[in-house]
Amino acid sequence: MTRALVIYAHPCNDSFAAALRDTVTGTLSTRGWKVDLCDLYAEKFDPVMSAEERRGYHDLTSNTRPVQTHVDRLRAAEALIFVHPVWNFGFPAILKGYTDRVFLPGISFRLDNGKVKPAMTHIRKLASVTTYGADRLRAFLAGDPPRRVVSRAFRHACQPDKFLYMALYDMNRADAARRADYLARVRSKMEHF
Asked: For the whole model, what pTM was predicted?
């Protein structure tokens, strides 16, 4: 049984992002996966790193204490899946805060003579399921930071056997048929993930 941590970031439970969350978690559960849904808004995750946390950031003996529960959930996972919208060409603030506070030295990476080395190698499958208000060209011209962070930084930290980045671009003009098609593609990809 594969253990998946699904990190979900959207404040509205009636959003299209919620439909994506339900498609991802439902499909994986049907496949027999053990799914840990981390709904950052529902759990009222505090995305703000305190001055004390920042000062202790590199102290591997204590840096996880403020977010220990989240670190434990991450360490227990074999698959890590992000479900979120892209806002202003970036992650929602709560998700950015999550990665700042939980993807710590010793957890997601380690420093070896000043070089960053992967530390989440227990994650064998990494995915991101997202939507963009902008079309693909505008996102590309802006550098598409979310895609780069997931496909480069997070992928490097995990060294997964399987990687997936799914995006519905131009969400603001997507009609019901296009949204339904995207949900079907997400379901299909999760069935084979």
From this structure: 0.96
